[in-house]
């Protein structure tokens, strides 16, 4: 008879969380995430109201920022046509205007010169105004010859004084009646947009504080509902970090989901405005297109909203823990 085969297996190792602190930490994080997600939807109506308040508070500065961003495209260098218009005197003929255009084009500050004769100006005025019969009744053409000068690009940007100095130089010519800088509206718009940037910054800070208050108040109510549970966990040795962890994750979810909902609101608003803005641009002979929220801006909004949720939850839990320690 053959001897029985030895089937004894090696003893199994008992899993010990204390021997692997990293695994224990990940296990605590997983449990806190799962618990915070479950707590988030215990009262869905209250959760949706909180998320809606956060989304509205976040969508307002986002919408204002997009409005400012789209307006700034009107003053971008690619859209600017920084021209200087020279209105010549009435006694300056067409040939004199062309000769003066050749002289002006030789100046180092000039990129190009275009001559608009008085006949061309009259025809353009006739098309724009529609006063054809009234203009035909005039004995003489009241419009002067015009030179449209485009300065070199290095005169642009912040060197506005150089453009003005150059226009003053051109006005000294005897043939010139008046000089008009056609970038003044851009300078005014830039000044308005600079003020708007500061207003949007103030509004963003105030609405950010609103998000902090909303998240903090929501977490505070959750803490009050779990007050007895927290005291029991303290008695069995729970640390402040252990108590704080699920509430911090809850703040993250409120901030993150509120940020996602705010992006949905902004995108719906943009879709609502695309058609009328396109029609308005067409009436002005332009192809202006509204720019929406890009990937970088999306990530910034979600990161900022999540950080606001974390800070709001941290302040709420920290206040409770400090008060509880003072009473102990």
Automatic annotation (TrEMBL):
It comes from the Bacteria. GO terms for cellular component: cell division site; plasma membrane. Keywords: Cell cycle, Cell division, Cell inner membrane, Cell membrane, Membrane, Transmembrane, Transmembrane helix. Belongs to the ABC-4 integral membrane protein family. FtsX subfamily. Pfam families: FtsX (PF02687), FtsX_ECD (PF18075). Residues 202-315 form the ABC3 transporter permease C-terminal domain. The keyword Transcription does not apply. It is found in: Cell inner membrane. Residues 1-20 are annotated as: Disordered. The gene is ftsX. Forms a membrane-associated complex with FtsE. It comes from Thiothrix unzii. GO terms for biological process: cell division. InterPro entries: ABC3_permease_C, FtsX, FtsX_ECD, FtsX_proteobact-type. Residues 83-179 form the FtsX extracellular domain. Its main location: membrane. It is a multi-pass membrane protein. This is Cell division protein FtsX. The chain crosses the membrane at residues 45-68, 199-219, 252-274, 295-317. Part of the ABC transporter FtsEX involved in cellular division.
């Amino acid at each position: 008879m053959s001897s029985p085969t030895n089937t004894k297996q090696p003893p199994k190792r008992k899993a010990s969380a204390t021997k692997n602190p990293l695994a224990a930490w990940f296990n605590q994080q997983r449990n806190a995430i799962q618990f915070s997600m479950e707590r988030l939807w215990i009262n869905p109506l209250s959760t949706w109201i909180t998320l809606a308040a956060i989304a509205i508070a976040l969508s307002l500065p986002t919408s204002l920022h997009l409005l400012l961003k789209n307006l700034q495209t009107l003053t971008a260098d690619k859209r600017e046509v920084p021209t200087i218009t020279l209105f010549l005197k009435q006694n300056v003929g067409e040939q004199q205007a062309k000769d003066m255009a050749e002289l002006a084009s030789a100046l180092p500050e000039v990129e190009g010169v275009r001559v608009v004769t008085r006949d061309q100006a009259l025809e353009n005025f006739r098309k724009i105004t529609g006063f054809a019969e009234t203009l035909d009744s005039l004995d003489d053409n009241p419009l002067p010859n015009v030179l449209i000068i485009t300065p070199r690009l290095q005169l642009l940007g912040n060197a506005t004084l150089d453009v003005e100095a150059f226009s003053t130089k051109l006005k000294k010519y005897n043939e010139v009646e008046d000089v008009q800088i056609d970038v003044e509206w851009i300078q005014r718009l830039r000044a308005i947009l600079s003020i708007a940037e500061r207003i949007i910054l103030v509004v963003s800070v105030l609405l950010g504080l609103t998000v902090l208050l909303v998240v903090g108040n929501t977490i505070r109510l959750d803490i009050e509902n779990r007050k007895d549970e927290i005291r029991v966990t303290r008695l069995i040795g729970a640390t402040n970090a252990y108590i704080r962890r699920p509430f911090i994750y809850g703040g993250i979810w409120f901030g993150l989901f509120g940020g996602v909902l705010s992006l949905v609101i902004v995108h719906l608003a943009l879709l609502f405005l695309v058609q009328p803005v396109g029609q308005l641009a067409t009436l002005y002979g332009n192809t202006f297109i509204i720019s929406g929220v890009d990937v970088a801006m999306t990530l910034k909004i979600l990161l900022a909203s999540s950080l606001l949720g974390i800070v709001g939850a941290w302040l709420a839990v920290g206040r409770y823990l400090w008060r509880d320690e003072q009473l102990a």
